[in-house]
Model the fold of this input.
Amino acid sequence: MNPSSHTQETTLNLGNTVNGGSGNQNFDGNPSEIETVDYSQSTTGIDINLDTGITTYDVAPENETPLTIMPVGDSITEGYLESDTGGYRDDLHGLLTNKGYNVDFVGNRSRGDGNFDNDHAGVSGERIDQVSDRMDGLLDTYQPDIVLLMIGTNDILQNNNLEDAPNRLSNLIDQITNQSPDTQVFVSSIPPDKNPERQELVDQYNALIPDIVESKRAEGKNVVFVDTHSSMNTGDLEDDVHPTPTGNNKIARSWYEAIRDSNTNDNPDNIPEDTLNNIDNVIGTSYNDVLTGSSSDNILVGGIGNDMLTGGAGMDQFVLESVDGVDTITDFQLGEDLLVLTDGLTYAEITITSAGDFGYNPKDTVILNQNQEQLAVLIGIQPDILTSDNFTTTI
Done:
């Protein structure tokens, strides 16, 4: 689709701008003013989350041999929605490979559109005991470096002896670690449930998982707790229990941060970080960045590199420069967020087309510049619903 109509113009209001990039800095903005942190001079990529107020600098992984990762669970792992058949897995794969990790997803099943490694071991409808029944065979066959374990939702949905569910989870963790002690097991809380009565059961179950994991760690087992639940709310659910594309992205980010923090070359305590308070906007580096906004209005500028941008709540502006790598925008909200064209690029010069033409999920959108070079990928957005109202150009 070749747009032709005129679009609105704007001046980016970045307010007060301070320079980041050296690490271990505190940025305290004025809550009554607009504040921006500029990382364009950084010598590494960054992972910034304005919601948590943390910027983490990249510590480059050195894994020439692929890190084998086996996602295990139910339909949330398998990918339930026809609009997001990769579930959280395609988002996680993108986050890891974007940051230089050499990863190989493994498992006896495959599902997911687009250009990513879609192997996994998730089965829709399965409970903890059913995962346990097939776990020995999976471990024998794939011998993964990492198991991502999110299970328990169907135990609650099926009211399957819930008092014993934590014990079943504990036994499943033992089963994995006893058979494959070198495998790193990431154990996640389960997502919210829109049904209030079931949500109480979800809360009760999730509250016990950290202690279960900690008891295994005390025994010397290679187990990590990942709290995906706390990053989500019921607005991230398509139905009662299955995440929307935005919800899947939040799950992927939780997994990614846990893997990153547990598999760096340096001691995680020595990874440089910045703390941020009352910061509204971010300008990224010339490397591959992960930029996540907050619940307020944010301007996210990826800069040079292949960046992953998540606005969060609020009216967000995603800045697309004429040539700066490909920005993947995970949560563009029609009628609320804006795509900002800069460097003299106009709406009439861009092309909006299906991402399937470029090896991505065909349910997503690719935006091309005047030279037919990729500028951005919009997750969960069909090209025919974008109009000039969704864009603005800088004056």
